[in-house]
Each structure stands twice: as C-alpha cells, then as structure tokens.
TrEMBL record:
Superkingdom in the source lineage: Eukaryota
Keyword Nucleotide-binding: no
Organism for this UniProt entry: Thamnophis sirtalis
Similarity remark: Belongs to the Bcl-2 family.
Single annotated GO MF: BH domain binding
Protein's recorded name: Bcl-2-related protein A1
Cellular component annotations (GO), alphabetically ordered: mitochondrial outer membrane
Annotated ranges, domain Bcl-2 Bcl-2 homology region 1-3: 37-137
InterPro entries: Bcl-2-like_sf, Bcl-2_BH1-3, Bcl-2_fam, Bcl2-like, Bcl2_BH1_motif_CS, Bcl2_BH2_motif_CS, Bcl2A1
One of the GO biological process terms: extrinsic apoptotic signaling pathway in absence of ligand
Amino acid sequence: MESCNFLYVNTLVQDYLKYICQEAQLSAAPNRVAEVLRKAGSSAQREVEDKLRPYVDSLEIHSVEGASHVFSQVMENEFVDGEINWGRILTIFLFGGILAKKLQGPLAKENLKQISYFITDYIVSTKGKWINENGGWEKGFITKFEDRSSWVSLSTLKTKILAVFSIFNQYHS
C-alpha cells in the first residue's frame, strides 16, 4: 500500500498541476490515483475558477513566494475548524491549480515545481496522518471519487471554497 510519503504525493501534485495548466493533456496519468484526481479535480476546477473569477483576477500574485503566502492563508481558513475529509483534500489541489495558472509565463515550468513542492509539503506535514488513517490514496481517495455519483458532494466543496476565498479576499483587497 502506498503511503503519504513526499515523493508519492509530489507525483500526484505535479501531475495535477501540469494537467490543469494543460502541459500533460496528451500524456497518461502516472497511476490510478492521478487519473481519478485529474477527472474529479478538472470537473470541479473549471466551475470553481468561473465562480472565483473576480477574486482570482484581483489577486496580485507575481512570485512563488506570494503564491505560497496566499496558499498558506487560504488553507489556514479552509481547515480552521479542524475538519478533514476527502473533499477538503481535493480543495488543496483545486486551489493549487488556481495558483499555478496565475503564475504561467516564461518561468511556468520552474514555478510549477516550486508550487508543487509547497503544496506537497503542506499535504504531507498536515494531512498525511489523516490520509493514511482514512484508507490512503488508493482505498480512501479512489473510493470517494472514482464513482461520479459521489461528485455530488463537490457542490458543497465548491461553496466552501468560495466562502474561504471571499474571506481571504476581504483581507487582501
């Protein structure tokens, strides 16, 4: 069984960010978890980005350091109640996708590596224990998101992301 080790999670994060930024559209996902993550995440990603467009457009992020700062603040708000579930784990990837798209440009490839690093570090250091205790990626995440009928819970997830982002935006407008 895979664990929540840094290299495994970094593979998932990098693949997802590349896929969302359309760098990996033609390549196969590196594993089944990444494939399910691509499908579940990209479905929610488009809708979340459309709903968050005013907030995302107003974000002044010009560096990986700025993205890391914003990421930390949004994640702090997202998990302030201490509640963790697979939908909230998915929000980490969705928000990472938003940040990666904000930093596309001449340094996009290097930015993606650095963004994937701080996202991976966050997942492993703050959510790794929960992930392992809840079936890991193979049994927990795939079970939750492989069947499209469970994606109904994504609407709740999208609402939560909008609320967190609007709170964050109040402090940075």
